[in-house]
Amino acid sequence: MDTGAERYAAYLDGDREAVGDLVKEYYDGLSRYLFGFVHDRALAGELAEDAFVVLVTKKPRYVDNGASFRSWLYGIGRKVALDRVRRDSKRSREVVQLDYELPGTDDIESAILEKEENGELYRGLLMLKSEYREALWLTYFEDLPLKEVAIAMHRSESSVEHLVRRGKYALRKELTDRLDGGK
After folding, report:
1. Which of 12, 57, 81, 168 is 20 to 30 A from 21, comparing alpha carbons?
2. How does 115-133 read in b/e, with b if 16+ C-beta sit within 10 Å?
3. pTM (predicted TM-score)
4. Which tens digits make up the pLDDT trace of 43-65?
5. What is the 3-state secondary structure (H, E, C) of the chain?
């Protein structure tokens, strides 16, 4: 059960410990999600922290429009990550290459990839276009309903449905190519 909305409301009403509860509940998943944008664990963690800073400093209003607090928070994290990548890309062209650089096997968190099969799946995801990777990650790893994925990605449900379908096709092709030695 997603109790984030209740905790956030408690924080807005003056319960300062509620933010700590939110961080404990959502930090790991949010940082794993943001890793898909930046391919750097430390930076993904920093961006997740920045998303929580937005909650504390700007205190945006959460409106329960059928979406979970988690998908709303992931949308904030997504915006923080995209803003950071855009800002950094203006400073250095090296950041633009982040979308193409893949971490080595040693850099992938062992907690996420306990089995080699999961490792291949994860590496296959990293090879996909970022929009496919994001849609698949939120749908299958974060287990968000299509409506909430659409909210987090700032897209329509039909667009997300299309991304998931195309992403699954691309992932299947990527994994098949790997197994057949085509890569």
Report:
1. 81
2. eeeeeebbbbbbbbeeebb
3. 0.65
4. 999 999 999 999 988 999 998 87
5. CCCHHHHHHHHHCCCCHHHHHHHHHHHHHHHHHHHHHHCCHHHHHHHHHHHHHHHHHCCCCCCCCCCCHHHHHHHHHHHHHHHHHHHHHHHCHHHHHHHCCCCCHHHCCCCCCCCHHHHHHHHHHHCCCHHHHHHHHHHHHCCCCHHHHHHHHCCCHHHHHHHHHHHHHHHHHHHHHHHCCCC
Asked whether the beta carbons of 132 and 166 are under 8 A apart, the reply is: yes
From CA 69, how far away is CA 52, in angstroms rounded? Answer: 13
**What separation in angstroms does the CA of 89 have from each of 6, 38, 83, 93?**
37, 12, 10, 6
